[in-house]
Write a structure and sequence with these properties.
By secondary structure, the chain is an alpha/beta fold. 38% of the residues lie in helices and 11% in strands. The strands form two sheets. A four-stranded parallel sheet has the order 2-1-3-4, with helices on both faces. Helix 5 packs antiparallel against helix 6.
Length: 319
Amino acid sequence: MNVRRRLISGTAVAAVTAFGLGTLSACSSDSAAAANTDKFDVVASFYPMAFLAEQIGGDHVNVTSLTEPGQEPHDLEISAKQTAVLQESDAVLYLKDLQPSVDDAVAQSEIKTKIDAASLTTLEKHGNEVGGHAAEHDDHENEELSGLDPHIWLDPVRYSQVAEGVGNAFEKADPDHAAAYKANTAALVKKLGALNTQFKDGLANTRTKVFVTTHAAFGYLAERYGLTEEAINGLDPESEPSAARVKELEKMAKADGVTTVFYETLVSDKTAKTIASDANLKTDVLDPIEGITKKSRGTDYFSVQEANLKALKTALGTK
């Protein structure tokens, strides 16, 4: 599906995201937690990977996340203690090119089962990668190493594909519990299918198909459901937008019927509110789900995605 995706140019510096990883009900949120337990020990790089491991592994896995609650995943620097945990674990689940320190640690590790989520689905170029602005303005330069958008988990279909791959890897690595992993994977895939249907039906008939975000994280979601993500490229959450930038945004908003400027749960809403006020727009949260904290509109991936859907339906004007 070819969906137009435009970037609002400007001179502001890169947006600095500040997501965190919340605790998981059946996982260890302590990245220094001991490995070598009597369960299948899995190290996950950050929340979307840890959530998959928890859902698929169930009671048979011990999941340790390398990214702590409130920690910005892209800037993660693995400690010596975390490296030791990685070496002692049975498997690692990560997303290549998102966290360079994780990539390096995994490459140097002798861990037997290395699961790269990026290899389990298809990746594309989206958002900040368009127009060549990323290298100059985007703090997430590690995302650009491959030139591909890493935010695959925000598309329930791609996330489901990753889940199936993770399930197969768990079955192979821990055959004693293969039946449980297969059943858990099937249940998760079914829930993701239902979520996809919710998004597809909920966004099928809207007054506009354009939404504005301060972080170009929703390219896959936009493409999946026929929307257009307007990314305010290279936007520092703490900076004031120029008059030219606001004027350009206001013009676009009027032309496309945009009502809302979306910002992220843990990023300052100062700039979003400044732009919205000057352009007579509203503001709301659209969560990239790189982590779950007390500020998240939900307690896990599914509840936050449902909150995202509700926010999009309101902003786009459900018919």
